[in-house]
Protein: N-acetyltransferase domain-containing protein
Organism: Colletotrichum liriopes
Amino acid sequence: MIGVIRTTRASSSGLSIGYKLRSDCWGRGYATRAVGAFLNVYWSRPRWAPREEVFVQHPLGSREASVLDVDVLKVGAPKRDENVVRRAAGPGREGAEVEITHLIAQVDPENIGSMRVSEKCGGKLVSVDRACVKVWRFPEMRDMAVWRLDKPSANVEPV
């Protein structure tokens, strides 16, 4: 195995996609192809999540944010559509589910290869947050680039 790709925890900007690749495999296009293939499979069917797993506290603490929160991301996505919220069915599933319409990639801006993977896979750079994350191998707080990878519409070519 040379790497791994997965969706991970919710953030104030949405559900995250994470990927790692062995360093001896960097620079060969493997990550771009693997993330592209992952996204094609991931978006091949509707994705829904319980509201309580998607809505997380906004970093400033002033309001909730979610994968549907256009105000947080400011990337020109369509306005929130109430059709993307549905009632959860079944015992113990009270409340609503929301459709997952994008994933978030959080990347060290100095990791040019990973920045290019997000770009080549159709990501839109949303922001670069300064000195906001502690990475175990660095003594200082690190910057974090936030990329949004939207679910393609029916008329968009897959990655």
Summary: Confidence is low (pLDDT under 50) at residues 57-89, 154-159. The chain is about 20% helix and 35% strand.
